[in-house]
């Protein structure tokens, strides 16, 4: 019997728009579960690995320190919008619940459910997009919606690469 492994990797999403923020992603991979944090990185985080090459910032087996992502002066918030999605069973849709929500944002829950359906695993997702979605999803402009879609595409690409390992 093999011992379960915990793998932690972190990535940087380059801005999709010239004025867009740089996002960071930290993935903790467990057996049948992903724990994901995605958020706006503070300025000065250019030394982190860039997503397109899928080179991890760090890749630690057995767990990581769980410290601040990206360094710098501002700290991103772990629990600004946090949810869990469970994969579907049979013909039932994926289920999920909001674990913590500190604003009108409702990004984590539907995204966690979509990722759980797509990858067939439990997904804990924390999203901190700062003021990008001020006023909730409905109040977000076209630029904010595009950035959020790009972040979702980046998440899917990273998880697909991890599934192939």
UniProtKB/TrEMBL annotation:
Biased composition range(s): Gly residues: 63-73
Region of interest (Disordered), residue spans: 55-82
InterPro entries the UniProt entry points to: PAC4
Biological processes, Gene Ontology terms: proteasome assembly
Highest taxon of source: Eukaryota
Residue ranges the record marks as coiled coil: none
Protein name: Proteasome assembly chaperone 3
Species whose genome carries this gene: Calocera viscosa (strain TUFC12733)
Lineage: Eukaryota, Fungi, Dikarya, Basidiomycota, Agaricomycotina
